[in-house]
Amino acid sequence: MIERIQFSAGGFEAKYGDKMSSVLDIHYKRPTSFAGTAMASLLGGSFQLESAMLKKRLRQNTGFRYRTNQLLLGGGDTKGSTAR
Q1: To the nearest whole percent, how much of the chain has pLDDT over 70?
Q2: From the centroid of its chain, how far is CA 49?
Q3: How many helices and strands, by DSSP H and E, does the chain display?
Q4: Domain ranges of the chain
Q5: What is the pLDDT of residues 19-48, one digit of tens each?
Q6: Are 65 and 44 in contact (CB under 8 A)?
């Protein structure tokens, strides 16, 4: 979904308001045709769809992500030992 990402630690030009704080500059993709990606793993999955419609006047970029740590955290002990 992201075409380019840049990070500035601070002290930059007036384009960003001439401030001394940091900036995360994100440029999203501008789709030109229908495309998509999918990913699956033991810890979750994701998919992303992009398309351009109405002679490229209307564009959409949609993504979904699911993540779980249950496989890693579910295998441990849930009760502590009681020493007497």
Answers
A1: 74
A2: 14
A3: 1, 5
A4: 1-29, 31-72
A5: 667 778 889 888 889 999 999 998 899 999
A6: yes
Cα–Cα distance, 33 to 49 (Å, whole number): 10
Burial 47-60 (b: 16+ CB within 10 A, else e): ebbbebeeeeeeee
Hey, what are 3's tokens? 């075409």
Q: Distance between CA 72 and CA 42 in Å, rounded?
A: 10
**In this structure, are residues 3 and 27 in contact, taking their beta carbons and an 8 Å threshold?**
yes
This prediction has a pTM of 0.54
Name the burial class of residue 29, with classes exposed (0-12), middle (13-18) and buried (19+) by CB atoms within 10 angstroms of its CB: middle
